[in-house]
Every structure is written in C-alpha cells, then in structure tokens.
Amino acid sequence: MDKIAAKTSLINTVFSWSLQDVLNKNLYKSQVCILSNCLTFACRSVKYGSTTLHGAGEFDLLVIDEAAQLKECESTIPLQLPGLRHAILIGDELQLPAMVHSKIAEKAEFGRSLFERLVLLGQKKHLLNIQYRMHPSISLFPNREFYNNKIVDAPTVKDRSYVKHFLGGNMYGPYSFINVTYGKEQFDNGHSPKNMVEVAVVCEIVANLFKEFTLKKQKLSVGVISPYNAQVHEIEKKLGKKYARSVDSGFSISVRSVDGFQGGEEDVIIISTVRSNGNGSVGFLSNRRRANVALTRARHCCWIVGNEATLLKSGSIWKKLVTDAKERKCFYNADEDKRLTKAMTPASIKHEQSLSKSFTSLRITDET
Questions:
Q1: Which residue of 48, 50, 120, 124 has the fewest CB atoms within a 10 Å radius of its CB?
Q2: Considering the domain boundaries, does residue 288 fall inside one?
Q3: CA quadruple 171, 173, 179, 180: dihedral positive or negative?
Q4: 91, 120, 149: which is the final residue of a domain?
Q5: Residue range of the domain that includes 262
Q6: What pLDDT does 17 receive?
Q7: Which domain CATH number covers 162?
C-alpha cells in the first residue's frame, strides 16, 4: 500500500506542474528520477515528450492519440523510445490531417499520417463504434455519409433528457438547415470569401440564445464554425466582447474555423457555409474531411446556415446534405423567423449599396 501511495503521489506531482515548472532547470533534472517511478506519462508535444523521457528507462507500450493528425515523420519520434513492444494509434483518417502550408509538400503527401498509411496498406483496424456526443438527429447524416452506418448512438444520447430546446420553433430543433437566399459572397483582401447576410443571421441566433439563457439560466456553450477565415473574422468583429463576461455565469461562445474546431465540441453548433453564387462554386468547402469535422462537433443542436441554390449546384457533399434535410423535414428558410428577417434586411441593403458603388467606380474608370 505504501508503494501504491508513493506512486500515486508522484503521478499527482507530475500532473500538477505548470509549463513554467517543467521548463525550470532544477525540476527538469529531477524528472528522470520521478519518471522512473511512474506507471504512465502523458505529454502534449511529441518532440517535447521524447526529450523529457530520454533516460527514463524502457517503455512497454506507446499510445498516440489523434494519430491521424500527426505527420508520418513526427510519428517516428516516439517510436524510437527504448523497449517498446506495443504501439496503439488512435485517430480518425476521415477527419482533417496535419496542417501543411506548402503546396509542394502537400502534393508530396507530406501531411499524411502513419495512421492513414497503415489503413491504406490494409492494416487491420478496430472501430470504436459507439458515439457519446451527438443527438441521433445530428449523427444520422455523417454516420451514413462518412462511416457507412457503422456508428451506434449511445443510450445516453438517445434518452429523452438529451433533447434540449434552447430556442422555440421547429427551426431550432436538434438538426436543421437554414436557407439564406439574400446573401452574396464577397472576397476580402486575402481572397477569403465572406457573406455579411449570413454573419447577420448567425449573430442574431447567438443573441437570441443569450436572451433565452438570461431567462432560464440553463448553462450553454455555443460554437460558430466557418471554413473561411474572413467569415470567422467578420463574425468575431460583430459579436465583439458582448458575451465575454457571461462565461462565469454559464454562457460561452467560441468562433473558429473548421480546422480550429477539430477535437472540440459544444452544446450548440452553428455552421456558416458562406458560399452564395450562381454557378455552384464552393471551393474547399467541398472537402469531405472538413465537412465531417464541422458536422460532428455538436452535442444537442447543429444548425447549418447556407444558400440552398449554390449548395445544390455544387454537386458536393453539401448537395447531399441539403437534399437530406429536405427529405427529413428539417429544411427551413431564414425569413420564416421574423427576427432573422429583421437582422438580414440591413445587411442585404448594405451589400447592394456596396455593389452599386463598385460598379459606379468601374464605370468611371473605364470612361477615363
């Protein structure tokens, strides 16, 4: 019992360290001694972990979490740990891989993970087929589209108590597509698309969620996801710090790109698809992995905001999603909610005025 207590104390000590503690030289020197007494050790960075564990003795088992997000070359670092007899890679090759900024490196598949390579080579894999996060209405489409209906909803998410009504009306059920017909995409200086009418819709929904929260005091976390940085920036700018003080009282809001949301989850997820044009061009919105991540972040409600006509013309995964929403009777037009109509009108007028000014400027330039 004394040995167990001692090891428990040592493990608790390790996990109580802050980053600054770990960087402290004196503490760093004592790590080898402490680690040799630990049953397990967890670290976030592969490179840091391998350095820290140097000289800590042999390890029988290595577990790499989020292995599909780790470049193959990075996986070789922990695999060099002495004494390894078993390695377990946990990940999902159907979601986003490691970030690669160079197009040449991307073309050379530098971002491919060891996890994905082993899958492609036919290495046997075990599917963790029970999902504990999403309401069944949310998991239905991604399960069918990405996982061949192999994922099973846990009893907890199927229980009636898991159904949450954060806003009134059928539009705000567990899963819905909200069609925004008036919005038009425009591009910022960095050539990233944004849609100001969708920004207005998203921010109005967030405002309404906050109003309900202040009345019911029901703890609520909201995530807003968009594939495009320009849209993320515009939503953040419009929301400002309005809800920052509400975190302690139970209301939190997080606005991020799809890439930034991988691994995260919130009670309510609002997805802004942005693209709205006459030719069905959706760019990397059509990326199936990116779509998979976005559609699987919500616990209780997932509301997708987008332009029906553009997405149907795209011939992408989003065409299937819109068609599916219509078949399941969870497709709604944004103007069915008077509050959204009121929010969209000024944004739509402002966009039209902006276009008018652009055309006038072009005409003057041509004439001169």
A1: 124
A2: yes
A3: positive
A4: 120
A5: 130-358
A6: 55
A7: 3.40.50.300
